[in-house]
Amino acid sequence: MMSGNELQYSLIGLGILAILGLVIYNLWQERKARKHAEQAFRSNHHDVLLDGDVEPVIPPAPGGRMEPGLRPLQSDPAPAIPLPVKPVRSSQSSQRVQEPVLGFEDQAIDCAVSIEAPAGVSAAALFSAAQEVLAGVTRRLQWYGWSDLDSNWFLIDARTPGSINRACVTLQLVDRRGSVSESELDRFYQQLQRVCEQFLAVPRLPARTEVLGHAEEIDRFCSEVDVQIAVNVIAQKTSFAGTKLRGLAEAAGLQLGTDGTYHALDEAGKTLFVLANQESVPFSGEQLRHLQTHGLSLVLDMPRVAAPVLAFDRMVTLAQHLADSLDGAVVDDNRSALSDRSIGLIRSQLAQFELQMERQSMPAGGEIALRLFA
Hints:
6-stranded antiparallel sheet; 15 strands; 11 helices; alpha+beta
């Protein structure tokens, strides 16, 4: 027969076991519910616009100017890039005044380093010292100062008056040369530290692995959309005279640039496409008087043009006009006639690339794209 104490201990033990059993049961039910929710909300659908079966005809250009022509293109859509979140304006800002953040366009493709100078520092002196110490940095650098009066960032240079307690410097991570290397980033960090030590300032250096990973993601996306489209006009019987070519180009509104090509410009004065000599001699006022050439190339740099499809249409129209006027033919890289079907496929691919860039908040021809594809 159990004593009173034994009975009491037995009841306590049973109570503990019951509680443990209830906890385990609840955890099992929660895990089961979570798995069910994940299965219910998991999406297996593909992006119809980006995964469609469109015949590829445009070549990817991993950087720099490619040879004119039409070649196969990878059809896989570019991966999403973890860019900084674009701020949304609101009447009540949630941003802390103590930790101001640069605008989206100023840091989306950059390594942004905040600099604290509690004792204050001359903006002009800080910039001048940085110019000297960081002279070997080949990536784009931009310096900003924080205005407590306006609660806003402003660009600083060697002529900026006054003192600041907070600054920020951005290092562009990617351009057509590729992404910043680990050695480049380390050298930038070390040299920036030297600059800050001169002014008793403290830089907040982002983690190297995160910066390099972000740079690689951007560079991977850029390699997918860095495409230049070219169509050629070749002579069929006699060569093209430079004087006649000059008259046709100027009548079409093209302007001769210092790079030896004619530029078609938009209303803002930005280049839509260029007209170049296929032969080694560049265009110039003097050369065109005596020039004889057997081929021309019209080239559109897709990521640098705000409306690439419309620019392509204008380029093809001009190519056909030149061919008709000069007794030439519009051909692809293999010297085959550029068919209406090929033109339609190119237009379709251009539209897809334009959509991809828009989804990454770096629209073709926009400020970020112009920096990336400079």
